[in-house]
Specification:
This protein has 293 residues and is mainly beta. Helix content is 14%, strand content 45%. The chain has 4 helices and 14 strands. The longest helix has 20 residues, at 52-71. It is globular and about 55 Å long.
């Protein structure tokens, strides 16, 4: 799987814990209660719209994200060039540039990630992600914004980024990942959409579209690999259009990074992603170049 989760799926980010004193100066105290509070802010009070108060709270979170730059203990900058953009087994766009910026602050990880294609479909995506790691469990909260391609845009969904009404182009997704152990690095994950016009079916009912995945990373002769299976546990709106439980992503990823000695932390990588989507009766093979520092 490439796309929104390439930072997590291909290469693992090691976040420096830092000192407790430094963490305490950050606006988010590195405790699970802080993450739960932020989750409450992002969770809509109503199923179909966000109130004016909600808009102000989202703006406040955006300001806190910007403030985090000054407090970051680790910073990662990435740019990937992919032959096509596949997300959870489903084709999204053709050849694309996918930049990313990740900040590590104690147990928190804050990331911005985007994708824009090089073809006439003019696909554009910009996501914000907040994660909190508690031992072998990681909690995720994501704001997923994408306009879709020119051929599949829904005229009933606004394309304005700062629009948070019932036809908002944003989707708020919450997720949790559990790694069995370091010796047995099998990862179980679950993600659910909490808000967004693209998560409403033709009858106007929210689907709470979800994705569950089991994955196993390993290494063969210095090549990092990851294989797994992902499925929709029930009916989804978008996300491949599952009518019930459906396997949508059987994948194997392979990649390798090389350090450029004369350029400090700069690294360059090559990766390949193979994915089969039984739901769509489709198969994709993606190749890419990764630039990281």
């Amino acid at each position: 799987e490439n796309g929104r989760h390439i930072l997590n799926n291909s290469y693992y980010l090691h976040i420096n814990k830092g000192t407790a004193a430094q963490c305490s100066r950050f606006l988010f105290s590195p405790h699970l209660s802080s993450f739960i509070y932020i989750l409450r802010i992002f969770t809509p009070r109503k199923r179909e719209e966000i109130t004016d108060k909600m808009k102000k709270q989202i703006l406040l979170i955006a300001i806190l994200f910007c403030t985090a730059f000054a407090q970051a203990q680790e910073v990662f900058v990435t740019a990937d060039f992919v032959s096509s953009y596949i997300w959870r087994g489903v084709y999204e766009a053709g050849p694309s540039l996918q930049p990313g910026l990740t900040l590590g602050i104690g147990n928190f990880t804050i990331a911005a990630w985007g994708s824009v294609d090089f073809t006439s479909s003019s696909y554009k995506e910009a996501d914000l992600m907040l994660s909190y790691r508690l031992k072998n469990i990681t909690f995720h909260l994501k704001d997923l914004y994408d306009e879709g391609s020119a051929s599949d845009r829904n005229p009933q969904i606004s394309r304005n980024y700062f629009h948070f009404g019932a036809d908002s182009p944003h989707r708020i997704e919450a997720g949790i990942e559990w790694q069995v152990s370091r010796k047995v690095p099998i990862t179980l994950s679950w993600y659910t959409i909490l808000f967004g016009a693209r998560d409403v079916d033709t009858r106007g009912r929210r689907c709470y579209s979800s994705y569950v995945e089991v994955a196993y990373p390993f290494t063969v002769k210095t090549i990092d690999l990851k294989t797994g299976v992902g499925a929709a546990p029930w009916k989804t709106a978008g996300e491949g259009g599952a009518k019930g439980f459906a396997v949508k992503n059987v994948f194997i990823n392979a990649g390798k990074l090389w350090a450029v000695k004369s350029m400090g932390s700069f690294r360059i990588g090559l990766f390949t992603h193979l994915s089969w989507c039984p739901l769509k009766e489709d198969m994709n093979c993606v190749g890419g170049i990764s630039l990281r520092m």
